[in-house]
Specification:
Number of strands: 6
Strand content: 25-35%
Structural class: alpha+beta
Helix content: 40-55%
Radius of gyration: 15 Å
Distance between the termini: 44 Å
Shape: globular
Strand order of the largest sheet: 1-2-3-4-6-5
Number of helices: 5
């Protein structure tokens, strides 16, 4: 995908009302869309960014307790992030399986949950696929831990 198509996909997702309604704020910054989580108990942000490996979809927070609240709910439910992500994709009528979700602490000491969606050459199909995965990823995390708000810490 060339830079123009990437920019168009990011701008279209940024302008999409159903996407914008999910976040407290959204801004385009270079090759990325940055969105603040709407009701999280601590600062958290989502990123949609094109990389050489594909579309990076991520949630990050500097707050250890928020990250642990997500992890704790996953342990209690005995479901994997991929299973929950796949359920959200199915709710959006997407038939495929989601990419693997990685969880780590980055060099800036943020707790990150991320996946990489390979690129496709067809721009029209790419927009729909990226948008669907972006919405499903946000929906997956909105239901976990203190992402929907809490005064637990």
């Amino acid at each position: 995908m060339n830079t123009t198509n990437t920019d168009t996909t990011l701008q279209s997702i940024h302008a999409d009302p159903s996407c914008a309604a999910r976040f407290a704020s959204a801004r385009l910054s270079g090759d990325a869309l940055q969105c603040d989580a709407k009701d999280a108990a601590a600062p958290a942000s989502y990123t949609l960014q094109v990389t050489p490996a594909g579309w990076r979809i991520a949630l990050s927070t500097p707050d250890r307790w928020l990250s642990e609240s997500i992890e704790s709910q996953l342990v209690e439910s005995r479901e994997s992030l991929e299973e929950l992500f796949e359920e959200e994709l199915k709710d959006l009528d997407w038939p495929g399986t989601p990419p693997a979700v990685r969880h780590f602490r980055d060099e800036s000491k943020h707790y990150v949950f991320e996946c990489t969606l390979p690129r496709m050459p067809d721009t029209a199909a790419e927009f729909g696929r990226v948008r669907t995965h972006w919405l499903a990823f946000e929906s997956t995390f909105r239901q976990l831990g203190d992402m929907a708000g809490s005064d637990s810490h």
